[in-house]
DNA sequence: CGGTATCCGCTGCGATACTG
DNA sequence: CAGTATCGCAGCGGATACCG
């Protein structure tokens, strides 16, 4: 018997509410997590470098997100006992195994931003004029 | 001059706060969006089917998420004027172009759930015993 | 069936201040 | 430099009720 999901006989399936893989999906499906994994693809980076690279992130969000990723075994945190202090974050093997996917999501966003913006404008324009189609004839 | 980001001369880069591709990334980096795109990979599905498939989603969240995806041109909503009403959602070409990525994220979550759970246990155990390493010798 | 409308509790997140 | 601690508000998501 397994404990990844809470009901008796089942399969690992993120569609299921109780399945632990759902929590993994939730951890990945986060803009900061996605950008952090992508940012760390080419090697370790310091906290301050990450903060500047992820434009707009607060120190608190960065710390929190990195902590969750460290707990999940996605990143490795290394403290160098120097003055001033120096902390580096790098992807673990596990983290590297998902980095391609996260890079893909980021790149897709950048490559299709024009189509999305166009779709949004068209939708908003239609929403002004026509009322939204409602079920029932 | 372009309008995808708000500063003058720049590149499309989701790392930048003002860049429109950041909003696209935010739209994708959402557990329900990810699962919905994956669920619709093999063809149109009705609202009620989706609600049952995405275990734990509320009607409100499902409606909201689908609306955003429709606005972004990821899904197409079709109303059949029958009684009882019937509304189907399907991926657009744009949506299909990102479906592989979303399937990958879902599958990665399922395939690595064991490693993640083990990492979490180890982390939580360490957190009880050792105090967290702090910067500065 | 597939919504919309409303209320509402919780927490996620930003802002700020402080520390080893 | 890389955090931690605290406060306070906005917004999200759940619960419920109603509708075409």
Automatic annotation (TrEMBL), chains A, B:
This entry's Gene Ontology molecular function terms read: DNA binding
Pfam families given in the database record: HxlR
Q: Which domain of life is it from?
A: Bacteria
Entry-linked PROSITE patterns:
HTH_HXLR
The segment(s) forming the HTH hxlR-type domain are 19-117
* InterPro entries membership: ArsR-like_HTH (IPR011991), HTH_HxlR (IPR002577), WH-like_DNA-bd_sf (IPR036388), WH_DNA-bd_sf (IPR036390)
Does the keyword Mitochondrion feature in the UniProt annotation? no
The answer to whether UniProt assigns keyword DNA-binding to this entry is: yes
Q: Which SUPFAM superfamilies match?
A: Winged helix' DNA-binding domain
Per its UniProt record, what CDD domains does this chain match?
HTH_ARSR
Supply the alphabetized keyword list.
DNA-binding, Transcription, Transcription regulation
Spell out the protein name for this chain. Answer: Transcriptional regulator
């Amino acid at each position: 018997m397994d404990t990844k999901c809470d009901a008796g006989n089942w399969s690992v399936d993120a569609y299921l509410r109780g399945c632990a893989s759902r929590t993994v999906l939730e951890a990945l499906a986060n803009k900061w997590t996605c950008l952090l994994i992508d940012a760390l693809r080419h090697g370790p980076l310091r906290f301050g470098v990450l903060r500047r690279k992820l434009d707009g992130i607060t120190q608190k969000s960065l710390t929190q997100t990195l902590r969750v990723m460290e707990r999940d075994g996605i990143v490795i945190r290394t403290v160098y006992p120097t003055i001033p202090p120096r902390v580096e974050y790098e992807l673990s093997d596990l983290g590297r195994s998902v980095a391609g996917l996260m890079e893909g999501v980021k790149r897709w966003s950048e490559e299709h931003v024009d189509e999305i913006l166009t779709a949004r404008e068209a939708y908003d324009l239609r929403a002004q004029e026509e009322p939204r189609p409602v079920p029932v004839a």
